[in-house]
Design goal:
TATA-Binding Protein
Length: 159
């Protein structure tokens, strides 16, 4: 595993220690890799997000868009706009402007012999917006997304 150094609060350090196999990207994103096929992985990611109360609001096929708009052949790459309505309601009720950071993007791409799943670390929102309700929501959502990443790492590539 690559060592990542970033400034983490005590709360975030505890999460980082508990999930050391998870790669944190500069304190703003979480990611993991898997050998599961791209299409199967998209289904699994959606299922795991649903288990945590998230639905997929949007799905952007970057490969298709690159071909259509630029005539570029690009690797399989999807951006899923995931939303948990309970947390979205709480966040929007506290600070409507948080909507510029929503929904939670979950990105899946093919990287040759493996696939990558990456998502924003929700606690970034509480570093941008100083609000106790946003901090609470971000901490709760972070725990849910960390569980999704952990479950992805445990999936059988033949599944």
């Amino acid at each position: 595993m690559r060592e990542n150094r970033c400034n983490l609060s005590h709360e975030h350090l505890i999460i980082f220690i508990e999930i050391t196999h998870l790669e944190q990207i500069g304190g703003y994103a979480l990611q993991t890799t898997t050998k599961i096929g791209f299409d199967n992985l998209l289904v699994k990611v959606a299922e795991l997000l649903k288990e945590e109360g998230f639905g997929i609001l949007t799905e952007i096929d970057v490969k298709e868009t690159m071909k259509k708009k630029l005539d570029i052949d690009y690797k399989p790459f999807r951006i899923l706009g995931a939303c948990n309505p309970v947390f979205a309601h709480r966040s929007l009720g506290a600070v409507p402007q948080i909507s510029v950071l929503l929904p939670c993007n979950v990105v899946v791409w093919d990287d040759g012999d493996h696939r990558v799943v990456a998502m924003m670390e929700p606690t970034v929102m509480s570093r941008i917006i100083d609000n106790t309700e946003i901090k609470s929501v971000a901490t709760e959502v972070s725990a849910k997304l960390h569980r999704v990443i952990e479950k992805i790492e445990k999936l059988n590539p033949d599944a």
